[in-house]
Amino acid sequence: MSDRRPIIAGNWKMTVNHLEAILLVQKLAASLNEQQLTDVEVVVVPPFTALRSVQTAIDGDKLLIGLGAQDLSPHDKGAYTGDISGSMLAKLNCSYVLAGHSERRQYHHEDDVLVNAKVRAAFRNGLTPILCVGEGLEVRDADGHVGHCTEQVIAGLEGLTAEQVKKVVVAYEPVWAIGTGKTATPDDAQEVCGAIRSCIAEAYGKEVAEAVRIQYGGSVKAANIASIMAQPDIDGALVGGASLDAEEFASIARFRDHVGR
Ligand SMILES: O=C[C@H](O)COP(=O)(O)O
């Protein structure tokens, strides 16, 4: 097993208001124990409007749960109506921010250049980007998934220093597995995650690649997390639907208790 610390993140997407978010983080804290929270990094990623409330709950109760945001502007300040800057997120004690989630790429036409600008904005503001990549069904059916995902990773990391690359979390999420109940098999997930680590090693060296944490995302649940985490190049999960159920999400974070690892 590698010494990379596993990271299990729950992306709440646009599903909860700030009151529901407070309840959810409190239930989650009650379902986890401190031992689990030191072995595994658990992060919640609420919508923007709930970040302040969740941050207050985490800080007030000294919960060992990390906070992330779902997106950020590539700009640091200015006349960008509707956008949220990295410095605003850092001020709310966010440690992580998603960049290039497939729903942003699909519904907001975010391309690799914009995603890369967001990754760099994250670092400028002391945030760790979770760079999301993944192929659609057509690309997978045409057997282009490995090349597609490694190109997205290299484009997303453009202009970063080796030390920054080491800190990046990459989330491999095959688009056809998101919210569909279809999980990639552990071997499918490992194939792409292994290729991602190899392409980072080629570009930045083996030491850098060995430090990068790579998550799998797409219909992760308690029943399948152990076999996913048993893969050598998978260091965590980016969980959508199942993270809205505190017990289920806590059970995912306890993946070591499940058979298979
Ligand atoms: O960010 C999370 C992913 O989009 C996965 O969502 P899901 O677990 O509902 O398939």
TrEMBL record:
Work out whether the entry's keyword set contains Protease. no
The entry's substrate-binding residues are: N11, W12, K13, G179, S219, G240, G241
**Active site residues of this protein:** H101 (electrophile), E173 (proton acceptor)
> Reaction(s) catalyzed by this protein?
D-glyceraldehyde 3-phosphate = dihydroxyacetone phosphate
Q: Which residues form the signal peptide?
A: none
Q: Which terms are listed as keywords in the entry?
A: Cytoplasm, Gluconeogenesis, Glycolysis, Isomerase
What Pfam families does its record include?
A: TIM (PF00121)
Q: What is its main location?
A: cytoplasm
Q: What GO MF annotations does this protein's record show?
A: triose-phosphate isomerase activity
Under which pathway is this protein filed?
A: Carbohydrate degradation; glycolysis; D-glyceraldehyde 3-phosphate from glycerone phosphate: step 1/1; Carbohydrate biosynthesis; gluconeogenesis
Q: Where in the cell is it found?
A: Cytoplasm
Class of this enzyme: isomerase
Assigned EC number: 5.3.1.1
> Keyword ATP-binding: yes or no?
no
Description of how the protein assembles with itself and partners? Homodimer.
What is this protein for, i.e. what is its function?
Involved in the gluconeogenesis. Catalyzes stereospecifically the conversion of dihydroxyacetone phosphate (DHAP) to D-glyceraldehyde-3-phosphate (G3P).
Question: HAMAP family given for it?
Answer: TIM_B (MF_00147_B)
Q: Which family does it belong to?
A: Belongs to the triosephosphate isomerase family.
Instruction: Kindly provide the name given to this protein in its UniProt entry.
Output: Triosephosphate isomerase
Species source reads Paractinoplanes globisporus
Gene that encodes the chain: tpiA
